[in-house]
Write a structure and sequence with these properties.
- The chain is α+β, with helices and mostly antiparallel strands.
- The protein is about 30% helix and about 25% strand.
- It contains 20 helices and 26 strands.
- It has a six-stranded antiparallel sheet. A five-stranded antiparallel sheet has the order 18-17-20-15-22, with no helix packed on it.
């Protein structure tokens, strides 16, 4: 995918206006299924108004009004950012683009995606109906277009406009800042009024971006229904200010909220025109920018906010601002971050929750080691676990995530914890993330003593597949790393050949005293029948893999010595496989594959296991005996190829060399 600069230079060179083939001006960009209304016309800003501008008089938080799309959460997030952090806003919405000089119909925006800032390039064709924008717009300055273009870029990021029809404020804020999200469920936690007020003030002072949402349905099951007090159910609001004022000798904390529609306001105490304003001095009213306008912006007391809203959604630009049970350390620190990308893979690393300390599946989850220096008494550590997901609207089928933290005993630190060694090393269950989280990100702050810890990210259900992004933040650079098994063969050779094999070899060998894969299959079948009374041998593909493993010159042929070695190998591997195949089905659960590889002397890492399970495990995650032998042959052949050609743990090959070694594997 070309970058903005390259695409724009090309467009200016060839003339005309840019058209984005990756996000076309048709129903494919509007809806999941690519089927839409014929009444939508795509128009460029200059076709909507002659005096089109990207930004008029600077980007302001009241520029953006929600349209027909149910993305109040996205608009609320953009408004919060424009209101509170212009520097970050300008990182996303670049102001060096317009419809005047060098206009080519192409624009760019930037969003943070799991550790990286991603450039999103779009053309400026926008969905309209009867000449008017259908979605976001600036109703006060109809010739300003940064709002609908930002919305289009965000829709492209997730695949379509429909994909952003429903979501959470904190998800959009994280996408726009790379910050840390935190959600306070007011219906469950019922935080004390004073504690919450202090937390909101502290977070505001530290530039935390804040929004509020109402989910409870009182009047209707429709998504956005107006209550008698003017607030809307199933709706998100952005915080634009909060102040403490003195009224008749009492302090009152007021929150200023904005409805993304640019209209529809709270009509209770402290609303526009409410009698409470007359109790306040004119000087105080001017200080807090009180005005009576039907613009969707209103003031509400902290008490009424708690009565009506269900959630507070926050995006912290600094880990210090995390409320962590409504207790904020207002002293800013310099935080260091370690980040890791991982995955829960069915049959490999999707072990699910901890049912017991000896749970076999739980310890299959990815593990990360964190060491905290002894010179510190206690260290603040923030752990943020995010599911990597291209879907913003969550439902009951989505993966719920969490993590568990164990502290290892000093001097008793295994490479990796397991159900088999848990009581040998007796690590202490230190912390958990609490209940499993149905949202995209789960973030917690802990005060941890010096020592070595193991962090285990997990899902609520075993075999739930998802990718994740883990951030570990501390006041000093955290010594953190993924825990993996060592790679490479560690077993011994075994001499297990018999006379039956030599007899069959003489019968099947060619005049050159060698056999190919077809003959090897016959030899193994004869030998197995003679030794075990079983006529079933190994598949032709398995025998081809065994030939490749033992055929260094790449002749496709093996002599008697190599056939004996191949038989010793397959017999040893088969014996190991049967020790795991307790029900004699000639198959094993793919979760056991890693342990089986270690038993035969070749420990592999999780990404290799993932590839094997994907290739051989099928939907049910079951590995057959024949497939196990094939996979191990290929792994070892590639391993020996790497060792023979590696320099400084790297291999350089031209295309022909690469094709030769991989095709013969």
């Amino acid at each position: 995918m070309s970058d903005y600069k390259t695409l724009k230079e090309r467009q200016l060179r060839i003339g005309g206006l840019y058209e984005d083939d990756d996000f076309p001006a048709d129903a494919r960009s509007l809806y999941y299924k690519g089927e839409g209304s014929p009444y939508v016309q795509w128009k460029r800003p200059k076709e909507i108004t002659k005096d089109a501008k990207f930004i008029v008089h600077g980007a302001k938080y009241y520029d953006m009004q929600q349209g027909e799309l149910g993305n109040c959460w996205f608009v609320a997030a953009a408004v919060s950012l424009a209101c509170h952090n212009q520097k970050l806003f300008n990182r996303i919405v670049r102001t060096d683009q317009d419809f005047d000089r060098d206009y080519a119909g192409i624009f760019r925006f930037y969003f943070w995606q799991y550790g990286e800032w991603q450039e999103v390039v779009i053309d400026d064709r926008l969905p309209t109906r009867s000449g008017d924008l259908i979605y976001c717009s600036n109703q006060k300055e109809p010739n300003e277009f940064w709002c609908p273009l930002l919305e289009k870029a965000y829709a492209k990021l997730y695949g379509s406009y429909e994909a952003i029809d429903g979501g959470r404020i904190h998800d959009a804020l994280v996408d726009m800042t790379g910050g840390i999200s935190e959600l306070i469920d007011l219906t469950e936690t019922h935080p004390p009024r004073d504690a919450l007020a202090q937390a909101l003030q502290d977070c505001s002072n530290m530039n935390t971006l804040i929004g509020g949402a109402i989910f409870r349905k009182i009047n209707s099951f429709r998504r956005e229904t107006r209550r008698d007090n003017g607030l809307y159910e199933g709706h998100a609001y952005s915080f634009t200010d909060l102040v403490t004022v003195e009224v008749q000798g009492k302090e009152v904390l007021l929150l200023r909220l904005r409805n993304p529609w640019g209209k529809g306001e709270w009509n209770g105490a402290w609303s526009d025109g409410d009698l409470n304003w007359k109790l306040m001095s004119a000087r105080n009213r001017s200080k807090i920018d009180y005005h009576k306008k039907a613009d969707g912006e209103f003031w509400i007391s902290i008490e009424d906010f708690l009565k009506n809203f269900d959630e507070i959604e926050m995006c912290h630009l600094y880990p210090d601002a995390l409320t962590q049970e409504i207790a904020v350390d207002t002293k800013k620190k310099q935080w260091e971050v370690k980040e890791f990308h991982g995955a829960w893979i069915r049959g490999v690393t999707a072990g699910g929750p901890m049912r017991s300390f000896t749970s076999r599946l739980f310890w299959k989850n990815p593990q990360y080691k964190l060491k905290l220096d002894k010179k510190d008494t206690k260290a603040s550590v923030v752990i943020s676990l995010m599911e990597v997901d291209n879907k913003l609207l969550r439902d009951v089928t989505d993966v719920a995530i969490g993590f568990v933290i164990f502290k290892l005993q000093e001097g008793r630190q295994p490479n990796r914890l397991s159900g088999q060694n848990f009581y040998e090393y007796t690590p202490r269950l230190e912390e958990t993330s609490g209940k499993f989280w149905p949202y995209r990100e789960r973030t917690m702050r802990f005060e941890l003593e010096p020592g070595t810890y193991v962090i285990v990210p997990t899902t609520f259900k075993a075999s739930s597949e998802a990718k994740f992004y883990l951030r570990i933040m501390a006041e000093v650079a955290p010594n953190a790393s993924p825990i993996e098994e060592p790679t490479g063969p560690i077993g011994d050779d075994h001499d297990l050949t018999t006379d039956a094999l030599e007899t069959s070899f003489k019968k099947n060998a060619g005049s050159d005293g060698k056999v190919d894969a077809v003959s090897l299959r016959n030899i193994f079948s004869d030998t197995k029948k003679e030794e075990y009374g079983a006529s079933d041998g190994y598949s032709l593909e398995t025998c081809r893999c065994l030939v490749a493993l033992h055929d260094v010159p790449i002749e496709g042929l093996l002599d008697l010595t190599k056939v004996k070695k191949a038989w010793d190998t397959v017999k040893l591997w088969t014996r190991a496989f049967k020790s795991f195949d307790l029900d004699s089905t000639k198959s094993i659960d793919s979760y056991e594959l890693g342990e089986l590889y270690k038993k035969v002397g070749f420990a592999v890492r999780s990404e290799v296991l993932k590839a094997v399970v994907r290739r051989y495990g099928g939907r049910d995650g079951v590995i057959k005996e024949d497939d196990f032998i094939q996979s191990l042959c290929k792994i070892m052949t590639l391993y020996y190829t790497f060792k023979a050609n590696a320099y400084d743990q790297k291999v350089t090959m031209d295309l022909n060399q690469w094709l030769k070694c991989t095709l013969y594997t």
